[in-house]
Structure formats: C-alpha cells, structure tokens
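Reply to dn_fold:

You asked what the input looked like. This is it:
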Amino acid sequence: MLSVRQRQLTRNGRVLPLIPRYFDLLVLLIQRRQTAVSRTEIFERVWSDVVVSDGALSQAIRTLRRTLGDDSREPQFIRTVSRHGYSFVFTDVVEESGTAAGQSSTPAPAAPLPAIETKPDQIDALVDRLLNDEATDEEQRDAAEQLHTLGTSKAIARLISRPRHGRALALLRDTRWDVAGAEDVPLVGRPEGLAAAWHLIRLRVRDAFSLAERRAISAALGAAIAGAIAGLAGGAMLMRSPASEAPSTIVPVLGLLGAISGAIGAAGIAAGVGAAEAIARSRRSAAIIAGAALGGVIIGTIARVAVRWTLRGLFGIEVPDIGGPLEGLLLGAAAGLGYAATTSRPGGGMATPSGSARARTAIVVGVCTAVAGLMLSITGHPLVGGLINEIAQASSGAQLKQSRLADFYNEPAFPSGTKILLAMFESGLFGIGFATGLTRRPRH
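and this is what came back:
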C-alpha cells in the first residue's frame, strides 16, 4: 500500500524504507502508471531544485527495484523504456484512501532500517563483490547499498579487515545518502582512510564534472552580462560628466572590459563552487565557501600576472596597485557564503532554485559581494573601476580617468566616497549576475 500522506510504502504490513526523493520518484511513476515517463520529466519533477547526473536516476531506479523485489530483466514493477525513461507496470497498488498520488507533503526523516537477521556469509559475499575490480560500477554500487541495508557498522568492520579496501570504503560512504536509515561512514582514523578520501573525490568529480563545467560557463555568462552593464553605465556617466574629455567610444570599451572581467572572475569562483558541490555531500556550506574563495584566489592571481605583463609589454606602463588574489579571495568567499546560505541541501548536490527562490539567492549573493567590495574599497584595494583609474593615471593623456565621476558628487579627484560607491555597485552587480547564471538549470 502507498500512503502519500504518511510518506510510506508498505507490503504485507512491513514498511519499505526509502529516502524522500526516491519516494517522490515512486509516487510519480505510480501516478503515471502504464505510461512511459521520460527521463527529462523525472528530473524536472523529482530533482527540480538540484542538478544531478544521469547516474543518480539509474541508481534511484535500481534502489526502487531492489526495495520492491523487482528484476530489470523480467520487470514486474518498473520497466525501462529504451532511450526514453521508465514505466510502472504493476497494477495491484493500493493507494491510501483520500490521498492523491500527486499530493505534496513535507518529507519525513528517514526511519531507521528495520532489523534484519543476517548471516556472516551474506555480508562477506557482498564485500567480495564490492572489492572485485572486474565488477561493473553498477554492480559495486548495488553491493554497497545492500551492505547498508544489512548493517553499515557490520559492513565496515568486515571491509576494513580486507587489504586494499580504500575504493570500496569510498563507495560505501558515497552510497549512504541513497539508503534510508544508513549509518555514517567515517574515513578519519580508518585504515586506508586517506586512500578512501581520494577515491571518493574521484568518484564524485567524475560523475559531476560535466555538470559543474556547464554551470561555470553559465555563471561566467551571467557575470559577463552584469559586468557589461556596469561598464556601459560607467561609460555613460563619464560621457555625461561636465568636464569629460572622453570620446563616445569609451562606452563600449568599458562595457567590453566589464564583461571580460566579470566572465573571468565568475569562471574561477564558479569552478570552485562546482568542485565543492561535486565533492562534499556533508559540510556542504563550508566546502562551498572554501571552494569559491580558492577559485577566486587562483583566478585573481592569474589575472594579476596577465594584466601586469600586458601593461608592461604592450604599453610600457607600471601600475603597482594591481589587485588580484585578495580581491578574488574576498569576492569568492562572499559569493560562496551567499549561495550556500540560500541553497542549503542536506545530502549535497548542485542547487538550482527557481522563481522567487532563485531571485532571493541572486539578491543575497549580490549583497554579500557588495559588502566585500565595500571592505576592499575601504582598505585601498581597487576593483575593475578603480584599476582603470590607476591605469589612466599612469598613462599620459588617457581619457578613462574615473575622477570625472566625482563631479556627480561634488568631490575632488577620485575620493573615497566615489570609490566606495563604484566598488559596491560593480561588485554587487557581479554577484547578482554570477548567482543568476550559476543557478540556471542545464538541460540533460
């Protein structure tokens, strides 16, 4: 019997435990039974708020089949529709009276697994399969999931007594999120714990690399648009300045510079965020902030060296106050903080909020990066607008001096007030564009 209200699946009076997302998938398939549900629709309905690889759906179907006692070769419950999706073909499903199969409900915490009497040879046989290098990835993951259902602690005890078990331990840890009631699989202090951690990183990066790459490109595009808007706005303000000597071509030039700067910065920070989301399923927020900060430092360092070499080699200009690593660190950490705070995901995953939730994420990230821009400006670390002014000051006859913006504030030269406003404007807009692009849902 299926109870959507209680979020339970029972057979012969026994509760069959499922994690909330797998339960939602089962409800969708039953609701549309005898109809082939496409993989695209499943991702949009069940994983609407997070981006996962195709392997996540395959694993969910495998878990449902094992829970129902189904066989993919002779399916009685879930049939694979080649190159399309899946169909629920079992007809004798009893739905709880008064509850529609599509009704939403707040997911309940996963109940502990029911006690199962196991024999030592059952666990040993699964451990052997998990350690078998000739077994397929799907067979090994299936073995790891079954070990969780038989008892995570017992499985760990048997596994760590075997030699060269690092990769198997990583698989056991990675699959714990997909088995209702599974226990934690700590790696610290375990034999081959470092090897297991390395294998775990490789597993998660391999599965999510292409998705993270697409998200980084999308974030770079969003920040490029925001940077172009900031540059065009700055150019227009320069043109309207009473004492401006700048030609009209300055507007598109500053727009292009803003777009390039935004895209480069966002690509580095988004790469760090994507790597953190792919690797960390626990302590996700801390990993995202650290990954974004590291990505910002790396791209900031590269940009600093590139700008210095370009100015020195092509124009013979030396600008000592060229930022990079510190600016990347603070902006990256701020963007990561805002994104992590508004996309909390137990169990990890690449979040893709939609509608008002997406707008809220973009605004919060923009506020965080604006605060970072304020801190950088106060401490004398210029962003793109300030850097352009520094370059203009070092160039005889340059017409890109941002000091003309001070005319709007009745301030002399390029004072602190103008610097602060300019830094907050460009950094805040960067954060909004970055978050908007990062949370765009890529197509499967």
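The chain is about 60% helix and 5% strand.
Hope that clears it up.
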